[in-house]
Amino acid sequence: MLEVRNLRAGYGAINILWDVSLSIPQGKLTTIIGPNGAGKTTLLRAIMGLVPVAQGGILFQGQALGGAKTWEMSERGISLIPEGRMIFRDMTVEENLLMGAFSRQHRARAKANLELAYDMFPRLRERRRQLAGSMSGGEAQMLAMGRGLMSEPQLILIDEPSLGLAPVVVQDLFEILQRLKDEGRTIVLVEQNTHQAVGIADHVYLMQGGKVLLSKAAAEVELDALHDLYFARE
């Protein structure tokens, strides 16, 4: 579904990604792990058109994404659930969710998708009239995920969803990710919790220093060997 080929990208004169290539198959959950500064978030931002591409290409369903604007990605079927939630704190929970279906082509199904979001995240239904800024970290992450699903994306990019959350909330979060996976969603998950991330994935990529060091089916990944690469012990 998504192909990244020999990608170089960064911020101004600073290059972050060095010839990154990966393949995201339809209906699978692909995990990208790596230490801070590995380039994981930059990769997602490059896919979304938030970071300019200096070299290489990105193909989605066989069509080049080069030159596409970030606000067009939703219409193309790609949704980013960003690191740090980035919810609209001064808007209600329901208003935040409806922002996920803001583009014209998604408005007709906004009400139906709102109910689907509430079914998946019952706490959001309870908080629907509450200002988003007053929510806990776990609730805010649920809101960010619910908003990202409102456009019925064909590809979901999720950046560090467990960051800063209590272990019990992280467990609930990964149960939701498992549910999305079981529904046949195509998901790219960037995550530092290697045990949880590998456990839920179909395929694993390890990035370090802006490069892909490992690409392997999750069932074949040995965590000890993975951690040796992760912490540059080899």
Report on this model:
With 234 residues, the chain is of the alpha/beta class. It is 35% helix and 27% strand. It contains ten helices and ten strands. It has helices spanning 40-47, 73-76, 93-99, 104-107, 110-120, 122-126, 137-149, 167-182, 194-200, 223-230, and strands spanning 2-11, 14-24, 29-33, 53-60, 63-64, 78-81, 155-159, 186-190, 203-208, 211-217. It has a six-stranded mixed beta sheet, sandwiched between helices. The chain has a four-stranded antiparallel beta sheet with strand order 2-1-4-5, with helices on one face. Helix 3 packs parallel to helix 7. The two termini are 33 Å apart. The model has no long low-confidence stretch (mean pLDDT 94).
Provide the descriptors you would attach to this structure in a database record.
alpha/beta; 10 strands; globular; four-stranded antiparallel beta sheet; 234 residues
Q: What's the quick description here?
A:
With about 230 residues, the chain is of the alpha/beta class. It has helices at about 40-45, 75, 95-100, 105, 110-120, 120-125, 135-150, 165-180, 195-200, 225-230, and strands at about 1-10, 15-25, 30-35, 55-60, 65, 80, 155-160, 185-190, 205-210, 210-215.
Shape: globular
**What percentage of amino acids are in beta strands?**
25-35%
Instruction: Quote the average pLDDT.
Output: 94
Report the structural category: alpha/beta
The count of β-strands is 10
Major sheet strand order: 6-7-8-3-9-10
Give the ordered list of helices and strands. Answer: EEEHEEHEHHHHHEHEHEEH
- Low-pLDDT windows of residues: none
Largest sheet: 6 strands, mixed
**Rg calc:** 17 Å
| Helix percentage | 25-40%
Distance between the termini: 33 Å
How many H/I helices?
10
